[in-house]
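Both lines are given unchanged directly below:

***
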Amino acid sequence: MATRAKNRGENRPNRVPVSGRRDVMTVADKDESYVYRWVNDTENRINLFEQGGYELVHGDIEVGTKSVDSSSSTSSVVSKNVGGGVTAYLMRIKREWYEEDRIKAAKTLEDGEADMKRTLNSGKDGTYGKVEIS
């Protein structure tokens, strides 16, 4: 009798307690040559991302924990209702382009920090104040 109960349990999916956390946005089986992200369809953001090299993800892709409101694949584009009447679409960009963008963003940040600390004509640096520990 214990053997029969054990065999039944092997086919049962993992149980998630009602109060447990649900993983609703994770994408399984991603292509490692791309970086994926969810983009809310607000204020022309989808178009902005497409101009930046992102593409909408198409196909039958497993997203998160099973739920009644699971991701939809209307016209094969992967999307998810995220509340407040907003739909998020799964988009991806080539990993090479993503890394290039990160390097450019880091350079912009470094230049901005250097600009804040630049040496002024008076010979003083652009910082002021001091910290004393007593």
